[in-house]
Amino acid sequence: MYLCSLSTVPECRAAFVKTAIVLFALSCLSGCQGKEAVETTPRNVATRTMDPTYNPSSSTIVGSLNRATAISDARTALAKSPGDIKSRIKLAILLDSSGDGSAAEDVLREGLQKGIKDAEFYHTVGLFYMKHQVKAPAVEAFFAETQLAPKSAVAHCKLAEALGYIGKSEEAQIEYDRAIKLDPKMPEPYLGMAYLNNSPDKYKVAIRYLEEYIAISDKKGPGYGLLSRVYLNMHQYDKAVVAGESATKSMPTDGNLWYLLGQAYFYNPNKVNLVGAEEAFNNTLKFGPTAHAHFELANVLLRLNKIDRAADEYREAVRMDPTNGKAHYQLGQTLLRLGKREEATAVLAKSKGLIKMNQDESLLLDKLTVSPHNAKLEFELASLYSKLGMYDRARNWFRSTLEDNPNYPDAARMLAETEKLVNSSVRSEKSQ
Q1: Rounded Cα–Cα distance for residues 267 and 281 (Å)
Q2: Category of 22 on φ-ψ map: left (φ > 0), alpha (ψ -120 to 50) or beta
Q3: Cα(302)–Cα(373) distance, integer angstroms
Q4: Rounded to 5 degrees, what angle do the CA atoms 420, 425, 431 make?
Q5: How many domains does the chain have?
């Protein structure tokens, strides 16, 4: 379990207040402008992806040493110089990369308890919690970073991203606007603004921000990819195809972009490109296999009358996501076409219960979009994921429940039980 990290700094306790926008007034940081003109974090922050400054699997930190030796050396270095912020950051990242997130958090929390006031340190704390999908402390940390480095466009960009994850779109847009004013040539805030405006009443606004992003970014693929998604949502399929093709040309090894292109080819009523869709979804599986990609490829293969192959792909979708009711249903129907009635009957029977749970999940997510801090809805969704055996998701939503209502009945107990199941699953995977 995490502790809301900034509240452990003595000077901050009186100012630790969880508000409706999950911003915390940090009295210890007020007037602390010593670093305001120094950008302490790298420029290459990636919206919606983990910042390269916090890369637990990075081999550049470990070098030629094995991880255990590197951790031991980092511990020794920090013990000799407890105030060395870079050593503390390095040790936390190494511990997290070894799978010991709890120990990594302890190292970071100890730094907070020592009253460290350093923008790069808070940036690392924020990224750690973002990686582990613990939302409130991430917002706290990035807010603290903006107080220590108010002229850092990167800091405001990351705060905006964290606010977006907790459903605070208006506050996130304010932070993205600040980042853009501080550094109009930094592309990531434009992409972030496009994500925030990716809704039916704001598609034109999203497109405008995406055009800005594409114009100034060296990595245009994510912009073209989201543009393809926006056009798909607008049912402008020809434009979705053009944007999707540009995305895959820009980033030819990104499976997500091939997935979007496959959808644009397949769902275009003006000119269905089944061969192109098959190739696109095959590339998705080549660069990043997902249950959704197997499912979509199977749909394409059915249209191409490749029934046996379609059944294989539906099987793989079910294997990768055993809770997907639609995949079970489609597999059952395909097995019927192949004459495998007994197996089809069993699969179709299972699909009914799963589809009901999937519908409940969608309904709860829709309600949470309207009321993002409703602890009751969060607990219900966490409990549903627990029933489905999706313990990672269950853990995250039990955490959210406690963030929004620390005294919610049974939430702490259920979180503790789920943590055990997650840890048991991780140990099992490592032993295989």
Answers
A1: 13
A2: left
A3: 42
A4: 125
A5: 4
Helix (H, G, I), strand (E, B) or coil at 187: coil
pTM comes to 0.73
Q: What is the pLDDT of residues 54-98, one digit of tens each?
A: 555 444 444 445 888 999 999 999 999 999 999 999 999 999 998
Are residues 206 and 232 in contact, defined by beta-carbon separation less than 8 angstroms? Answer: no
Strand boundaries in 358-426, DSSP class E: none
Domain boundary among 321, 340, 369: 369
Residue count of the chain: 432
pLDDT of residue 423: 83
| 192 and 220 part of one domain | yes
Is there a contact between 294 and 278 (Cβ–Cβ < 8 Å)? no
Residue with tokens 């990768």, as numbered in its chain: 320
Q: Is residue 183 classed as helix, strand or coil in its secondary structure?
A: coil
Domain-terminating residue out of 369, 386, 406? 369
- Whether residue 431 is contained in a domain is answered as no
Structural domain boundaries, residue 317: 289-369
Question: Which tokens belong to 393?
Answer: 């998701």
What are the tens digits of pLDDT across the range 155-177?
999 999 999 988 889 999 999 99
Distance CA 198, CA 192 (A): 10
CA 316/CA 293 separation, integer angstroms: 10
Residues 179 and 193 in one domain: no
Please report the pLDDT score of residue 2 as a whole number. 32
Phi-psi region of 52 (alpha: psi -120 to 50; beta: other; left: phi over 0): alpha
Question: What distance in Å separates the CA atoms of residue 16 and residue 125, rounded to the nearest whole number?
Answer: 17
